[in-house]
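To close the chapter, one final illustration. This time we ask the reader to focus less on the individual chains and more on the assembly as a whole: which components sit near each other, and how the overall shape emerges from the parts.
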Amino acid sequence: MASHDETYQLLCDQAKEAALIDSIQQLLEWDERTKMPSTGGAYRADQAAYLSGLTHQKQTDAKIGGWLDELAESSLAAKPDSQTAAVIRLLRRDYDKKVRLPQSLVEELTRTAVRGQQAWAEAREADDFAKFRPLLEKTVDLKRQEAAALGYETTPYDALLDQYEPGETAANVGRVLMGLRDALVPLVQAISDSSTRPDASVLAREYPVVAQETFGKQAAAEIGFDFDAGRLDVTHHPFCVTLGPRDVRLTTRYDPRSFNDGLFSILHEAGHGIYEQGLPDDQFGIPLAEFVSMAIHESQSRMWENQVGRSRSFWEYFFPLAQKAFPAALNGVELSTFYDAINEVQPSLIRVEADEVTYNLHILIRFELEKAMIEDDLQVADLPAAWNEKYEHYLGIVPPSDADGVLQDVHWSAGLFGYFPTYAMGNLYAAQFFAQAQKDLGDFDASFRQGKFGELREWLRTKIHQHGRRYSPAQLVERISGAPLSHEPLMEQLQEKFGKVYGL
Amino acid sequence: MASHDETYQLLCDQAKEAALIDSIQQLLEWDERTKMPSTGGAYRADQAAYLSGLTHQKQTDAKIGGWLDELAESSLAAKPDSQTAAVIRLLRRDYDKKVRLPQSLVEELTRTAVRGQQAWAEAREADDFAKFRPLLEKTVDLKRQEAAALGYETTPYDALLDQYEPGETAANVGRVLMGLRDALVPLVQAISDSSTRPDASVLAREYPVVAQETFGKQAAAEIGFDFDAGRLDVTHHPFCVTLGPRDVRLTTRYDPRSFNDGLFSILHEAGHGIYEQGLPDDQFGIPLAEFVSMAIHESQSRMWENQVGRSRSFWEYFFPLAQKAFPAALNGVELSTFYDAINEVQPSLIRVEADEVTYNLHILIRFELEKAMIEDDLQVADLPAAWNEKYEHYLGIVPPSDADGVLQDVHWSAGLFGYFPTYAMGNLYAAQFFAQAQKDLGDFDASFRQGKFGELREWLRTKIHQHGRRYSPAQLVERISGAPLSHEPLMEQLQEKFGKVYGL
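The assembled structure is written out below.
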């Protein structure tokens, strides 16, 4: 018995050592994407590859398999609902997947991801897909190798998807997204037919970058992001990364002629950051302090960005502060004009700027394209044309340039295939969780209106954050809402909100 | 023969692997001192300790000893002047020192250095030495253990000094500093007796931080720091760090009511950075791309800061640009007023703000105090009083607070004992090298006046940078100037310059 406790401790220590090395690699990546000088990239790729190889070694050490075998028979694993059983089960899952990947492939994937992101940034800057193509071809090839090594039943895409969303399949994602699309179409049509049109020009006035940063930090802090354990920097493509139990970093980008770009990215990334800061510090490095899945992570960012950050009551509190921060742009503007403007629905080219209603169509496009690339049904050379075709088909618009089209997202350059669908699933989880929070606690409008966001945050902490990865996405949504994931809560919220905005 | 070549390759690869890990640790430290959120420190210490332990493992692997033994007999080591012989000799020296240090001590030193710097920053902020004292006591104790492990003949201080300045001793440093002091005293006295007094009030006008940063970057770039392979950030205590062959980072701090603080720190750190950028990229990780010693490093920073950056011809070019950058402060100011102001000699409290004439007295104080702590002749508890006594004795002033006294430097908190003397030696090397460069190339005034600094930079690159660590400090100064290090070049330059400023 004592021996099993010791083995369990050894297992956790090994996981923590791997997490520590990985956290250093996250710093390399954060720095690469926010600070690193332009010619530092080649050596940075070597540094990142070295650490990813080392992490992989620690995660695939044969003694882990021995410990797991030993513990499988122990009382620690006997009660499936216990914390220890969950840790053992999840580390077994991780180990079984990791040992299938040769270290050389892991290092090559990392090196290619670093170089790929550099090539992508240059190609995007130059609006020249050809500069990115060789790296993307190499990346797709490596991801196919990765899928083959991991194994799959139906499609290699499932093997990649499962890394971000345990248990999820391409078939199910396709069904869900198509179902959501069918429910959205009448709403988009009704909005399009409406004679009400928000005037969004107010959002394209002068918003000085320094004031955007100050206001964005204030908003992030007020919804609950702790800047003593985090920071905010500028990057090409906003992200959130955790460098340790008390070090969570947000990034955004600013456009001095756009209110939306900077602020809603900050609220979004702060939602991720609040989740990370809500995981138990003292368990850092084992599944009890890890996030559930990418979609659950995204549910947190989208809830703070959309259900909260694009609500009227949020702006009843923040709009006067925004007017002080941006007097030239917002003095004399009515709250209702502003509120309608940030909720304008308009098929657009850029995913991260898309409205709540059309956003998931952007995901559908990426899902279909990346699945086709991984299944070898689409060649990288044909990607820009395929991208433009899909945009015309689903959104009725064609990007005027690759920079605003196929080059807009960092994901593929970083080797993130199978990641995009989790954005759409995240939107569904966000709506379902938010609906449940309102059922549990009543309407939040009165507290939001006073700048009080703690009640919702504590609800999320108690229901989701504090459990780490103990429950699967499916278990979690069932525990919280008593029902499996459905697109209905999202559709109800969209219909309610946009029905008002567009006078439907 | 082929086998020796292979062994040599293995030896170099091992050194490069250790350097790669160390370069990642440098990123951890850079981030800790410039970006890390306030509560991230505890985990950061674990990360840094882990990597330092790993670097130490790579540097002390027994197979290195075997390779070195094998190569000692080979033709690669036969010609002492060859590059390969230098690499083998220097790696032997490094290995023999490293293997004397137990890994547990190395990790503990690193962890304590990270925590010590955090405690120091807090103590300095709060002007409360007591907050720093326990960490400093622990650091002194660990450094004494380190000296004991390394071994020494006369004093444990020599073992620490030798890590920064190979072959240097406390006895010799004491002699040099005392000799320099004796030569300085009549000059300080003459300046003090002079009726000419520069009006330095112009330097305490409003210098907006944003303009300081822009102007400082321009100056650093014009003297030759490459911002495509480096950057500049803000910190408490300015430093320069290399994170890879194309990634050299400068830091500074700004005071909106001081011209000197920001700019001369930038020129100083850019001098370090130009040296690092001048080392051969393709040899990164082996002694051919490493700096000679801390004093030689400091000679590069001090030359750009003082011999160049505080010269009249430098400002004949830059002063009009400074007037554009800081119109409110500098419009209508005469160049000669400004030049005299930046060369004011005034015994002061803060080392990094000290003038060229009194600077070395600050070093003398630190040298005596740290030597006494390491030799157990001074207890940490008594350090603030001892500090104040020495300042009264050598400079005639007593710090009004510990923040401006014993807490002003980061070095001891980071475990850097034996480091301070290299600042003074660096001043002497700088003067001797600059005198030789003028002998070789003629006076630089005409080119500086036109903003041309390439001639001096190339001279430094050819004479010093490109050789890496191939020559010892003593060999280098002999090769370059045909004479051993002397305080005379510095004294001649000071007498010439300050004789004019003070009308002596």
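The two ends of chain B are 66 Å apart (CA to CA). Chain B has a mean pLDDT of 95. With these observations in hand, you are ready for the problems at the end of the chapter.
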